[in-house]
Amino acid sequence: MTDPHDDAARPPDDLPALRRRLAAFAAARDWQPYHTPKNLVAALSVEAAELQEIFQWLTPEESARVMDDPDTAHRVTDEVADVLAYLLQFCEVLGVDPLAALAEKIDRNEHRFPAPGPERSAAPPRAQE
């Protein structure tokens, strides 16, 4: 029987539990001295580049079907996990609430980029600033 308070037993959508598991994982290996903001953001960038590499030479159509191949799907999910893990660890070190940050960013973007009304057509999205 699993302990309901055990973070490993919680569903994967429990962000605080995942953050605690990541912190415990690093602490058990004495990695905290290496988990500086600079090092974590560098690792995040590398992992994001590894995710991008999977899609680098695919056509838009091929990229939309990337999860159809089990081997490629496994690579994608592993890299997504790596990107998320480093992002969460980065947020933990700096005391950033990633969900609050995202909600605030969406709020700002809704004001900066209002949805087109019937008289306007949608412009292509621009890179987030």
Please summarize the sheet with the most strands: none
Helix/strand structural class: mainly alpha
Q: In angstroms, what is the radius of gyration?
A: 19 Å
Gap from first CA to last CA:
47 Å
How many individual helices?
5
Mean pLDDT: 89
Number of strands: 0
- Which regions contain 5 or more consecutive residues with pLDDT less than 50? none
What characteristic shape results from the CA principal axes? globular
Topology order in helix (H) and strand (E) letters: HHHHH
The gist of it:
The chain is mainly α and 129 residues long. Helices cover 60% and strands 0% of the residues.
Write out key terms for the chains shown.
single chain, 129 residues, mainly alpha, 5 helices, 60% helix
Report on the architecture of this protein.
60% of the residues lie in helices and 0% in strands. The chain is mostly helical. Helix 2 (37-55) runs antiparallel to helix 4 (70-94). The longest helix is centred in the middle third of the chain and has 25 residues, at 70-94. It is globular.
Write the layout of secondary structure elements.
Layout lengths: L14 H14 L8 H19 L4 H5 L5 H25 L3 H15 L17
Helix pairs in contact: 2-4
